[in-house]
Design brief:
Layout: H1 12-23, H2 27-33, H3 57-81, E1 91-95, H4 101-110, E2 113-118, H5 121-134, E3 140-144, E4 157-163, H6 171-181, E5 182-195, H7 204-213, H8 220-229, E6 232-239, H9 241-252, H10 261-270, E7 273-282
Parallel strand pairs: 1-2, 1-4, 2-3, 4-5
Antiparallel strand pairs: 5-7, 6-7
């Protein structure tokens, strides 16, 4: 880094998040991605096939892993469905891209250029190596950047998304940067877990999730306040809570369970935590 370059992480907290993901080799992310080469860092949507639980014991876990991966890919498809019409000449940004699965899916669907960003060197290196293997590294590129200050030009992107990555940053700072980078009329989409501020503050289960992932889950209402303050108009809000519970029920039965499954299921079932999709246009 030269004297003129700014560090990617700006605070001790951001560095702790980067350190966490640089060291992370969780089978729940790697084994699922090995199914077809789409490596996700998010959760799943839809009912699972109960037949996987009746698979003979020597193949049952493999079947559960494949089914969990199908549900995670379905979640990314739902997000991409809400980006609106995207042309091959457009450019998209995957903010907090993880190992890049949603970026690859976006390029394969729309044929456009996609940039992914992460503060984890390990994730960026992994994702770039993967798109080189796929032969799409001319169209999908991953960068070691901070989503609050990316260095991309203003009005660069037709679409931006955060797939379960907003809980690591201040929402006002995030939406200010996204508004700067989006073209007028561009689309922003997030799928995120948020706590139910109607019922009060963070529940015990939500606090356990925060602790597990070193994150700071936001209140549901904070998303809409921060969007309105930065020129975003929501056009679709979808409560996905009921649709994600089966994924967690299946994951609890898998060999890649981490122990965080119980807090997720408790929080969703008691209503203290919501799984939300928000699509908004930049005005």
């Amino acid at each position: 880094m030269t004297a003129l370059e700014k560090p990617v992480t700006r605070t001790a907290y951001q560095q702790s998040v980067a350190d966490y993901w640089n060291a992370e080799k969780d089978p729940v992310n790697l084994r699922l991605g090995d199914v077809d080469g789409l490596y996700h860092h998010h959760y799943g949507l839809g009912d699972y096939d109960p037949a996987v639980l009746e698979t003979p014991a020597d193949r049952r876990d493999e079947a559960i892993i494949a089914e969990m991966h199908r549900l995670e890919t379905a979640q990314a498809d739902v997000l991409l469905d809400h980006l609106g019409p995207i042309k091959p000449e457009d450019r998209l940004l995957d903010a907090g891209c993880g190992r890049g699965g949603t970026s690859v899916m976006a390029h394969l669907r729309f044929g456009c250029q996609v940039d992914g960003i992460s503060i984890s060197e390990q994730q960026v290196g992994f994702a770039n190596a993967h798109v080189r293997q796929r032969g799409i590294d001319g169209s999908v590129r991953y960068h070691l950047k901070n989503m609050l200050d990316t260095g991309f030009g203003s009005g660069t992107f037709q679409g931006i998304w955060n797939n379960e990555s907003t809980m690591y940053v201040d929402l006002n700072e995030l939406f200010a940067e996204h508004a700067r980078q989006l073209k007028p009329g561009g689309r922003y989409v997030t799928i995120t877990g948020c706590y139910n501020d109607v019922t009060g503050g963070r529940s015990r289960a939500v606090s356990q999730i925060d602790q597990h992932y070193i994150c700071n889950i936001h209140a549901r209402g904070d998303y809409f306040k921060a969007m309105a303050a930065n020129g975003f108009v929501p056009i679709n809000v979808v409560d996905l809570t009921a649709a994600t519970i089966p994924y967690w029920e299946l994951r609890e039965k898998s060999s890649v369970a981490t122990g965080v499954e119980k807090p997720f299921l408790t929080a969703y079932r008691e209503g203290s935590f919501h799984y939300l999709l928000i699509a908004a246009d930049r005005v």
